[in-house]
């Protein structure tokens, strides 16, 4: 026994009930908003509101996520070994619910500080928030692999999640910048509103997964060192981690650069909202298409296609200063179509890797796999802001606050554009090349689950 009570319904490989799919997907309002809002607004909040140097601001965004490399791995192991009447995953999700919403609000509280002191305050609170997020996210991502053995059912299960992610990203990219504006009061209001959204989503997913099917036949591995060794020895996991890290890094760079692109390339700071609409619109529309393509091309082929679309949109956006705002938005639509596929396929393929390892090894190591995954994902996404901040610094971007606006030099405006286009395109290309080495197909997985 692994600690599940009667509420955890034993399942045979097959369809996950619709109610559970929705209950699980609700949690994406937490995961997507927390992943998107700091990546989108925290850098520009510090450089343009709290007068923090762009390079320092980029480091502040990254360091708390570097802590995840330790915290997430430990949380993954602990959740694998947890025995409770709520199962091994849900108690940790509830713990994250107690920490993340409050610390998120405090991140954007607008302290009466500027420069380095403001950066230290934001960094410390972000560290607490990142820890709360890890408590929730690591077990949350481990659950799909334990709900069904079916290779394609995991994609269908996560299709619901991706719809909620698209809605959440729309909230992050449209509502959050609209509330924040460019004032401390606006950022404070935004932080409180989204803290409430996080709280409701986290509680909703906790209760929504109470009756989730469970295919767990594995026993948890005893030693963290042994589990980490198992992760290192899993070739599919390592290749997937590498290619998805490249994708996440590219997205992190573009996310951090979006408000700057809107303000200094498109020429309208409010265009952040319409650019995000262009990004997430395809996610709402193309999810059934990507599910179909994953069946026709297998997941690896669909992943390659989605990466190439993302890269093409980024490169095309390089001509935005010449061709205007409408063209810039159309380029982001192309990026959005590719991003939709990447988001769906990453999590579906991770669930495949966890299920494959569990069936081959007979051990429950999903928590450690997702712990490592989430730690690396969080760190590289945040490192995207560091990269973009460094590009701005090299370009001579000047920090400011609303009371003391500045005119940016031409070199800084050029850096804004290069950071959003050429750099993400090169990074995503490396991910496409790594995808060619990933070989966990439906045919390879099938013998392990029969």
UniProtKB/TrEMBL annotation:
Protein name: MFS transporter
GO cellular component assignments: plasma membrane
Organism: Acrocarpospora macrocephala
GO biological process terms held by the UniProt record: carbohydrate transport
Domain of life: Bacteria
Molecular function as annotated in GO: symporter activity
Keyword Transmembrane helix: yes
Keywords linked to the UniProt accession: Membrane, Transmembrane, Transmembrane helix
InterPro entries: MFS_2, MFS_trans_sf
Transmembrane segments: 22-45, 51-71, 92-110, 116-136, 157-180, 192-216, 237-262, 274-294, 301-320, 326-345, 366-391, 411-436
Matches recorded under Pfam families: MFS_2
